[in-house]
Structure formats: structure tokens, C-alpha cells
Amino acid sequence: MPELPEVETVRSGLEPVLRGRRFLRVEQRRKDLRFPLPERFAERLTGRRVVAVERRAKYLLIHLDGAEVLVVHLGMTGRFTVSERRGVDGCILGDYTYEHGSDTRHDHVVFTMSGGATITYNDARRFGFMTLIPENRLSQHEYFEDLGVEPLSKELDAAYLAARALGKKVDLKAFLMDQRIVAGLGNIYVCEALFRAGLDPWKPAARLATSTGRPTSHARRLVDAIKTVLADAIRAGGSTLRDYKQADGSSGSFQHSFQVYGREGEACARSRCRGVVRRKTQGGRSTFYCPNCQR
Q: Which of 13, 57, 104, 199 has the most crowded CB, counting CB atoms within 10 A?
């Protein structure tokens, strides 16, 4: 599933062709994706102007005139293709794991924008979804009301992590994967951040705080690691978890910079460490770590 850097890469690719443009035509080819599309979906979008294109956690937020927001979640296989002229191969935004996106049978929604761009949403497994939410109700909506802070915002600092971790027996990885604490972090970048911070994924989250609730050095290192690994991944265009054959520059390359994720049995990336990367199942997901470096 695309994680925060991949969704941010999609957002930045969509923004130039959406912001300030109007939906001239919306072609809805089925009634539902993961969930039913809103009633009169195409009709309600047609003619609307896009005010801003933002991201919250792993959601795309397309703000419309009339104080309404088109919310998009890519699910497992959702992707957008942007073409400047209909019928011409365009820039692919998404498609991080699966090959299905080349099959036009999975083109479910097509947006024709003023300015000439055609944006096609393709989703083979249909785990993605779209909905329309009034802007003034966005933060109270069930998708967003319990989300924690954005990891790249100033709200995520050592003091915040310490306050949330005080007395918590849950392990560090599960703590970071909890979307109610930090929004948008997924398995790949949690593994990478914990490695960069030199922290054992199985140690209790309480080690981020002193007995009085002040942040420890572990908390400060972890915040720096989270922000750095996400920023590096965004600059690299996210992580593409397969060989990407298109030559349009849309594939992410951060997978070539993984220091632990997917590197089971390989030598630790730290030059002075003689450890070997291991993989264990933790909370139903694979955790990659160096037992020597991460204490």
C-alpha cells in the first residue's frame, strides 16, 4: 500500500494540473470503488474549480469551490494517469507494487480538466475510494477525527512523543504505526526510522519519556529519524517496490536507499557494524532491523 511519501508524490504530481482548473467532464464508469461513490458524483463535480490540492496522512484532499472537498484514498492499487491530450500516454502517478494499472478495464473514473489535462483513476483491486465532504466538517469526519499529528509538521517533536508514550507498554513499532498518534506512517518508513534512530522495535514506547514525562534522547533521535527518512523518500519520489519499466520519470527510487527494509540476511548498512539485517513478524507485519545497532 502506498505510504505517506508515495501519496505526497501523487499529490505534487496532481497539483499543477488540478489547482485553479475546472472539471469540464467527469466520466464515472462504475457505481462503486471500495465503497459506493457519492450520489450524483459526476454531476456534483462537473463545473467545479479546484482551490487547493493537499494531503492528510494517506488521503488526498482536493478542495473545491463551494467549500467541499473531494477526498481520495489510493488503497492498494489506486493510481492516476495524467495526459495532456486524450489518448496520448501520460505521466503515471502511483502504481507502486502492481502491474495491473496498464489494463484499461480498471480505469474507473476519468476527469477532463480545463487546461487540457485528462486524469484517469485506475484501480485493479478497487481498495481505493473517493467521497465528497463539506470543508467545515472535514476534521470531524470519521476518516480524520482520530488522526494524530502529521509527521513532517512542527507538532511532531520530542515533547509530543514523550507525552503520548508516557507509561505505555506497547512496543515502539506498534506505537509509531498507531495512526491516532502519528498520521501516515506505515511499515516501510517505521522500520527505516527506527534503524536510523538506533532503536529496538520491540522495546516499550515508554522509553521515549522520563518518569516525569520529559522526552529522552531516544525521543529526540526518533523525531529526527522520522522527519529525515520521510523527507529523503519524498525527494526520491517515494518507493517503487518492483522494477518500473516506464521512462516518464514517475517511479520512485527510495527503495534503493533502504537500509533495513527488504534486506534480510544482508550486512548492516552502518560501516562499523558487523550485524546482519533480520526479519521477524511483528503485529502481523514484517519488521526488518539490525540486532547489533538497534538497542
A: 199
